[in-house]
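Bench notes, afternoon.
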Amino acid sequence: MKAVVIGPGRIGCGVAGQLLRASGHDVVFVGRDPRLMDHLNRVGRYRVRLARGRAERELEVGPVRAVCCTERAQVARELADAGLVVTAVGAPNLPLIAPLIASGLTLRREPLNVLAFENSPDAGARLARLVGPRVAARHGFAGAVVHRAVPHRLGDPRGSEPLLFIGDDPETVVVDARPLVRPLPEIQGVVCTGDYGAWMRRKLYLYSAGHATAAYLGHVKGYHYIHTAVRDPEIRATVLAAMAEAQAGLARRYGREVAGDRRDLEDILDRFANPALDDPVERVGRDPRRKLAADERLVGAALAALQAGVRPVNLELAVAAALCFRAPQDLSASELERDIRSTGRGAAIRDVCGLEPTDGLGRAVMEMWDRLLAASAGCLLLRLDHPLWAWRPDERAKAYA
């Protein structure tokens, strides 16, 4: 079977392409960088290094080939006779690829499944809407939850050596079974579920919320990498507690089978501490405006915890730290900083997080923000022995007035 992967980036190559080739499928990548497309065609393969603690394994993925998205007629032909399509372009970029997908689907007689590896709760449905109801009606557009993190691509596309993608070892991809128009072919690591929302929120509220907490608190204390940030005892304890708050919300809504237990949280924390990933704080924290939305990893998890009767003190702190995130190269972070300066902190909590800054969770975040700014005194501190939020445990007993 031929599978077309749109987006030959870290997830497209480091997860989708690797799992599809491991399952015996032919893989064609579609991308917008002519140098990268040329490289994949010249070299015909790449490598994936998977690290877990001290253990590493390196896989060669090939043969593969590639087509540049500017070759629209060729892309349409590739899609027309594909057995499966995977997108891995980042949710904000779905509108850019929807016309390409539509052009290929209009040439097909048989229905096709399109899997969106986009780490977004509604990626499949959104892509179907972007493609258009007339074209999408006969085909299946399903979201997919990717469990592997792939922070790095190494190598020069102008050279002749295979590119190297570095990630951790989980290979599970959970696919929404409901929109599929026919059974998926056998793909290593892929499982289908009828309760996609539950597993999407598990990834978002546990792994993604914990990752974001480590990044934003690490930024406040001056760390540059996630694995060094979570070695800080204060950050490590806070990340674990934030995930536990989110886990309580998941357990109330979906039960313990989805929410998991303490061992699951410790396993996630061990993944963050993996030095082989060398994952920058700035990469994990980027796009804070999106990650602070009411249905996203931090605020969404905090609201779920509240519904379970748990005061999300550590998630409140993570939201406040995210509002302190500064990254000049990140457009979202720069825009958020400008908005805070121009409209005020209360407006940012209301407009970005969807919370009322004078009531409930919004007021708690504002108080955390005040205390965090006072504790750090406007400085980034890189000191393992200097707790910035030692006051935090005393807040646990307080309820919202």
